[in-house]
Amino acid sequence: MFIFNVILAIIKILLFFILTLFFSILVLISPIPQNQRIFLCRVWGWLSLKVFCIKLNVVGDLYKNKHRPIIIISNHFGLAEILAIFCLYPAHFVAKSEMASWALVGWSMRRAGQIFINRKRKDSKDHIDAVLNSLKEYKNIAFFPEGTTSDSLILLPFKSTLFRSLNKENFIISATIQPLVITYTKVSGKKITPEQRKKSSWGNSVGMFEFLLNMSLLPSAELTVKALPHINVDEPIEARLLVDKLQHDMNAEFVNLIK
Predict the structure, then answer these.
(1) Average pLDDT for consecutive 10-residue bins of the chain (259 residues)?
(2) Quick one: which H or E segment has residue 86?
(3) Nearest to residue 170, comparing CAs of 119, 232, 127, 114?
(4) Nearest to residue 73, comparing CAs of 152, 97, 81?
(5) Is 217 helix (H, G, I), strand (E, B) or coil?
(6) What is the DSSP letter of 155?
(7) Element holding 223 (H helix, E strand)
(8) Per DSSP, what are the bridge partners of residue 198?
(9) Do residues 176 and 68 lie in contact, with contact meaning Cβ atoms separated by under 8 Å?
């Protein structure tokens, strides 16, 4: 049975890579405007969840408004939450600059309007400007305030850098923050165990293939997306105070979901 599960997991990974390659090329050669290429990313996310046999369970009301930019934030533990956000929103992710150099994938991400920042730079002005430029174009942006992947058992401390785009010295446009808490809740119809949760995360210093293999070894999974109340930002805020509130509220909901 184990050998069969491994073979099935490898098939999932191969299908995922084929799907990613196909959509990367499609985004690169497509003559459609950039704001429509994000639709291809959404289809890729939806199909990828199907490949990995992951079912979305959305709890709460997702804020949607075509006339107001939305900042989607979530906890970060691997890949599933990225696919889920693409399914739910036409979002432009803030990603590390190293990904821009990935052959085909990085190029297509840039062409689809994803936002790249150099996290190694101590000067955060470029990071803030990248967010502001997207907000000015009324794009929905998504990022992970933890700044890296966790082992999916806890939420790591949130960083306030990107939220400083809403500070007094940077504020230029109203926006809405939609906090999401995303986590696996079931495997094969049964409550996921802490061991399964940790093993299927990318916060364990493992390589990409090992992470994808562990994720694919879940026969079928339910991924719960809990939408917390959205926050309208119509005037400048104090980034650190906002981040502390978001960390508290999201952590409380996360603890509740993984019980």
Answers:
(1) 88 96 90 83 95 96 92 95 95 79 76 75 73 88 92 92 90 95 96 91 83 92 97 94 96 94
(2) helix 80-88
(3) 127
(4) 81
(5) coil
(6) P
(7) strand 221-227
(8) none
(9) yes
